[in-house]
Input
Amino acid sequence: MPIDATPLFAPSDRRGPFFSVIAHNRSLVELTSPEGHRATISVLENDLFRVQVASRGQEPLQRTWAIAPGQDDIPWEGRERSALDGFSLPEYEYAVESGSLSLKTSRMRLDVDLNGFICVWRSLTADGWRTVAEDRPTFAYNFGQLDRKTYHYLRRSADDFYVGLGEKAGDTNRAGGRYRMVNTDAAFYSARTSDPLYKHIPFYMARRRGQKGAVGLYYDTTADCAFDMGRELDNYHGAYRHFSAETGALDYYVIGGEDFAAVLRRFTWLTGRPFLPPRWSLGYSGSTMSYTEAPNAQERMGEFLGLCRRHGIVCRSFHLSSGYTTIDGKRCVFTWNRDKFPDPALFARQYRENGIRLVANIKPALLMVHPEYDQAAKEGLFITDAEGKPLVVPFWGGNASYLDFTNPDTVAWWKKRITDQLLTVGIASMWNDNNEFEVWQPDALINGFGKGLPAADNRPLQTLLMCKASVEAQREYDPGRRPFSVSRAGMAGMQRYVQTWSGDNVTSWETLKYNLKMGLGLSLSGVYNIGHDVGGFLGPAPEPELFIRWIQFGIFLPRFSIHSENLDERVTEPWMYPELTPLIRALINFRERLIPQFMDLLWQAHRDYQPILRPVFYNFPDDPACLEENDDMMLGEDLLVAAAIEPGVQERRTYLPAGAVWTDWWTGRRYAGGQTVTVPAGWDRTPLFAREGALIALNTADQVMEADRRGFAWFPPAGTAAADRQVFEDDSESLQQDRGGHGFWSFTLGSRAEALAVGISRTGPAPERFDELDLELPGREIRPLEVTGGRLEADKNDGLRRMIRIRLN
Output
């Protein structure tokens, strides 16, 4: 489909620097212009190219902390941008003729007009070669004719569909918007309109409606930057979109693919393997500012344990807010207020004995009243001003200085404090908070691992390295246990280290609706282990209907935490409305049932770079109806979640994607795809559909403490079909999977008109701890079942569920 807007100047009218090839080899092509501008194209994978553009006198960036191809970590001092380890460096076709350059692999083709360095990108799809991106033919780059910023302008079509850009407000489709990448403490933000927010992920994907093929563009910079996705108009240039950065040479990666799924997997691989968390991190996590602010905080925290027992609420972790660190009302990280918490070790032990891990809040700045501030300043641990003195900035509670995580001495100091003050008393993991590093002074400096760098251009880097330091401290303290850490702010590559959430959201129906979309934006940007403060963090306590709808949605997020600092001083907790407590208890128990499925999805993210939460168009790229803005999401490949997010409704209309048959999880009713259906959406359950053939891992035990019994929900096809399925299993929190100690359930699933068949086998030690397996089928499924790998012990049907117990061989 042709671009639907053309510039008033034809290409022949264009006046730009003319580039010539000066070198090319197995992996790259170097070009220069008579004015001294430079460009480099690197062919890294069949579907991945890198482009660097530097105007005369502009020095290319030397190191990156975002790029980690297929790796789960990077060196502290970063990776040389010229490094090629990790890339396959495929062969490519090369041609220069008539003022143009062409590079072609088996999956991508780049054609460059050397007059102005105008790039056109094509990707090989099932329908042949398709153009997926092309530079604007007028002033695509800033070769000194604009200002000192860095720009990249591309052509735009009215049919373009843009997704990604990380944690952003508004609709999933970013077309027509303008977005800034500036890590900001955005408390009270509007999930529909506010920008910027907490994270810096300059990556997006694009495709054209009605056409196969997709493209991803990642701009490798930690400088403040912005994306205009069609809000800006200029009749002299036609329809365009653009990227701009405050500083630095242009360094971007282009990924081509059949669809968004192919592009996203490659981008996540490029920026590093998502970490595999411990299983306990997937349960309900309690949290509130109120308890640790109380003068009898340890006593209040003990009351929470009793309330969980009284109401039958299964809680797996508790996010410990920073009130535990106060000295004279000031939050001093790595201290314990012994008036509030007389015995931190006893406190942590009591929680652990009740099956709850503590996740302690830590902050990357020391208030000037902090007892260790002067010594830290003497040791040079802070970001400094131009004169080398600690840079003093406003922070929570007063003036403070940020720690500099590009200084090895700071990293050592940080890890020692985590160990001595938190891990040794029984804290399980770290909650990295208030870590946007709001340094606006242009002359502020960081150590830069001995190189001295501007602080303002590297604020996201500080966040990433803070997370890395927190994870390393846990790993060094207990090498056999899987580390877990959480961070509010972040940048591309953060998925290697931490879980995240959408910051200090506001209690409102609008937040519920648009936090759903915000989470999908993060998922479409390589950050898969995510969540929101369920119920809303700031504002009034949620009304009953809003609270139950939040929980109905929240139980399907990797991070499920109810957290609040309500202005009316009420605590948002599962039992805050007695009439709702039984419903909320049932919803949390359903979340517990789904944890084995979440664990398998997190393994797929870790191994295969697959997202956990997905918009429906991710799984169904050929159904144009799925591209329409909606409030649905997929949990993995097979579950469609249609949460009720509007007030006053008892039904939910949802579109079921074409190309699949769907089963209502609650009623067992089957629906053909490609239609909109209306289903009940009461306060007791979330509308949920399973794709035909799905096999969903479950914990079928009574949800008490550490109980775990393995089951699977199977939704067999009505006709004849056969499929193999493999499901991950491990021991929940050790690092044994790195040493081959995990295992898999393997299933051979068959259906015929007259019978069903299931074959079960196990590999690795983890599944061997189970002697029995529960198989759940829709109640309408009455075909006899043939089992291999075990024997049938029970087969009961209550009309809604058919419950089968199998004794394993």
Observations:
- Residues 203 and 278 are 28 Å apart (CA to CA).
- DSSP finds eleven helices and 53 strands in the chain.
